[in-house]
Known about the structure:
The protein has seven helices and four strands; from the N terminus they run H-H-H-H-E-H-E-H-H-E-E.
Amino acid sequence: xxxSVIASLYxxxxxxSLDEAREILKLSRDQALRIAPNLYHHLAFINVVExxxxxxxxxxxxxxxxxxxxxxxxxxxxSLVHIFLSQRGTTKxxxxxxxxxxxxxxxxxxxxxxxxxxxxxxxxxxxxxxxxILKDVNDKVLEAGIDRIKANLQRHVNKGKFSQEKLVxxxxxxKGTLDYETFRDVDMVIMVSAI
Length: 195
């Protein structure tokens, strides 16, 4: 498949301005260094994203490919593959996986990070009538995440998949926060970024 036929590579309607994107990437780098100073993977991912934003999708994909070739050889990656295969191997243990455990009922979800992925995840939960708490690092980034969620919901209205009343109801289930105080009564926390 030629890269030129993948139209979504050239979409920029969900990207911030270059200055705002660089500010977000700088915050992400600082957080990655603070939370996991000995892991290169987070910084490598941020560098790939930045290359794609600054130099375009083709250059970004080439950078992603080259970075993947480096990361796949690191001990951390080998350990993660081992953990993955171990988890798969333990899915059918008599007396453990056949106990008939019932999943917990989920009503309220908190999402750490309202970037593209976080806002999409929040949108899915809101469309399914869950309460969502969106946490981010500062007011500006939080507001941008909430705006992305509103735009996602509005697209559903524009396509006729969702009424304006349901949009208002869905937005009433959304709350933004800068701290963890409101996490006390959530049923699930989804960490999308290193906040």
